[in-house]
Specification:
It contains 20 helices and 12 strands. The chain folds into 3 domains: 205 residues, Growth Hormone, Chain: A, CATH 1.20.1250; 78 residues; 262 residues, Vaccinia Virus protein VP39 (Rossmann fold, 3-Layer(aba) Sandwich), CATH 3.40.50. The protein is elongated. The longest helix is centred in the N-terminal third of the chain and has 42 residues.
């Protein structure tokens, strides 16, 4: 074989290395950005905003990287390429772990005061990753042209880069995130970047020192991948603990503010930090499930369940919530000889089922998460509450999305009980739409009722729930507007009552009772009916709390400041800011 032919083969194989590096660099950097998007959605909510900002900042940073290419003119192009690959290998995974760690650190030091700063800093890895990925496109083009002159080398490199981005996006969504997980994927992609740096060495002259650095990082990333499951558990435990502590910090901050304003507690009183211990954590196909213990620092403790981003129930108020949720609405139903037809939306813990079965009812429950319901059937934490109520022949369950169920439902129900984890998450925003409430009202009898809980207040004299704010009040107004346009006509509001929560070791009168959760009861008609206090022992016992409930027309509310939320035009900012 002639020398010129050997030289041509070498140039050809080096060109393929250029395309290989371009493809995998785009693949890795896009996977990093999707990881950042998902992580920020988990930590700070509002998935659409997080993904939009992350992808927008990433594309902008790619441009910055390409423009900054000439700043490194004094450095050998191959060396700049190698450095950028090594930097991606380090910054990408550290960014994923660092965002969780830094968020926890700032919360530990400053509580809720530094949340905006933590969110701002969390975007730094996004910029760095984009710049490092962007600089490689012109670098690879120049190196490619030095191997074999081509007028369209930049176009070829860019085309391969786009293809790598496509493969990264598809593979991340279908395999890496659901099967490998966030943390282990970061370490895996970091390892790929180190191997890419190894590929870049073929373009360098003095290679020994570069091989040494690469081998060192290969060892480190091999260990990280081998220990990935353990590291992920540690990071997950930190995230869970901080997210739970944040939730209680928000609640306590508002509760303490209200009590100070009312003169119940001294203005200088501070609430001790709760100590959180995570007991059980797993993911179903639809939600994240966490059981945890609380040591409140004042001698009291609690065991709680957290579903996705919000605490769903705690031992200290589980019965308080569920007894009011069921007993008050049933007391408004007109007496009849045949069983009431009840539709239960959500309620996978099965606690509402137990309370409903105290009445002459047939229950159709709709819950999308069969895995969680099966877990709740046998787990001791739930069993002590639902007492195997699911074995009753009057209970039927449909594992389906509530929107889809109601869309095709032809049955009429006397009572609809909604006990969903709020309407404020991305996954449930369609259940707070005009279309959803249109299907729901269509599924109610003419005298039918619907009950749900919510934060916020619709009237200025309502008792302000924990996280009461202008945002939550607007959130509630959007829901009420959706219900009005969906066919509901009137509402009344009531509370679950229980012993006041003990705060900061504060002495509380044993006979004291205060409002807990806020519930709203809706009707398709407008009539100022009163509850039947003989309907249950609960209503007899708590008659003084519910004897002055007033019904109001939804049409009389001033809802002009908000627009309704629709399936294809959701009122996203307000609904997800909750």
């Amino acid at each position: 074989m002639k020398i010129s032919e050997l030289s041509m083969i070498k140039r050809f194989s080096k060109l393929h290395i250029i395309y290989f590096i371009s493809f995998l660099t785009a693949f890795c950097s896009l996977v990093y950005e999707l990881q950042y998007s998902q992580l920020l959605s988990v930590l700070y909510g509002n998935s659409v905003l997080r993904y939009s900002l992350t992808i927008g900042i990433y594309l902008f940073s790619l441009g910055l990287g390409s423009l900054s290419f000439r700043l490194f003119a004094g450095i050998e192009n191959a060396k700049t390429l190698w450095i950028s690959q090594m930097a991606l290998a380090i910054i990408g995974p550290i960014g994923i772990v660092g965002i969780v760690w830094f968020d926890g650190l700032l919360f530990e030091l400053f509580q809720l005061k530094a949340q905006s700063f933590a969110l701002f800093v969390a975007h730094v890895p996004i910029v760095l990753t984009g710049v490092l990925a962007g600089i490689q496109i012109p670098l690879l083009s120049v190196i490619g042209n030095s191997i074999k002159k081509r007028t369209d080398m930049f176009v070829e490199v860019l085309g391969v880069d786009y293809f790598g981005s496509l493969v990264g996006a598809v593979l991340y969504g279908l395999f890496l995130y659901p099967r490998v997980g966030l943390i282990k994927t970061a370490f895996l992609i970091g390892l790929i970047n180190v191997l890419l740096a190894l590929s870049c060495v073929v373009f360098l002259k003095n290679r020994k020192i570069f091989y040494f650095v690469i081998v060192s990082l290969l060892v480190i990333f091999s260990v990280l991948n081998f220990k990935g499951a353990e590291i992920e558990k540690s990071i997950m435990r930190l995230y869970l603990t901080v997210s739970i502590e944040k939730e209680f910090a928000i609640k306590n901050e508002h509760l303490l503010t209200m009590m100070k304003q009312d003169g119940v507690v001294n203005a200088s009183l501070n609430i001790p930090r709760e100590k959180i211990e995570v007991d059980t954590h797993f993911n179903t196909s639809y939600q994240e499930v966490t059981k945890y213990f609380i040591d409140r620092g004042d001698g009291s403790s609690d065991e709680c369940l957290k579903l996705s981003n919000h605490t769903n129930m705690c031992d200290s108020w589980a019965n308080i919530y569920h007894e009011a949720l069921v007993n008050v609405p049933v007391s408004f139903l007109k007496r009849q000889d045949e069983p009431y037809e009840v539709l239960l939306l959500g309620g996978g813990s099965l606690l509402p089922v137990r309370n409903l079965l105290n009445y002459n009812v047939n229950i159709d429950q709709v819950d999308i998460d069969s895995q969680f319901v099966d877990y709740a059937k046998t787990d001791p934490y739930f069993s002590k509450y639902h007492q195997n109520a699911y074995l009753d022949a009057r209970w039927h369950i449909f594992y389906e999305d509530a929107y889809t169920f109601l869309k095709h439902n032809q049955k009429k129900y006397d009572l609809v009980v909604m006990t969903l984890p709020g309407f404020g998450s991305d996954k449930l925003i369609h259940l707070g739409s005009v279309e959803f409430f249109d299907f729901l009202s269509r599924s109610m009898t003419d005298d039918g009722l619907m009950v749900t809980w919510e934060y916020g207040k619709i009237n200025k004299d309502d008792y302000p729930q924990y996280q009461n704010s202008e945002v939550n009040d607007k959130h509630l107004k959007v829901l009420f507007k959706d219900m009005l346009e969906g066919g509901l006509k009137s509402y009344t509001m009531f509370y679950a009552f229980g012993k006041p929560m003990q705060i900061g070791g504060l002495k509380i009168d044993d006979g004291a009772v205060s409002p807990y959760d806020t519930f709203y009861l809706f009707s398709k008609r407008y009539e100022n009916v009163q509850p039947d206090f003989d309907a249950s022992q609960y209503m007899q016992k708590n008659k003084k709390y519910y004897e002055n409930m007033q019904w109001h027309s939804l049409e009389d509310l001033d809802l002009s400041e908000v627009r309704a939320s629709h399936i294809f035009a959701p009122n996203y900012d307000i609904m997800t800011a909750f």
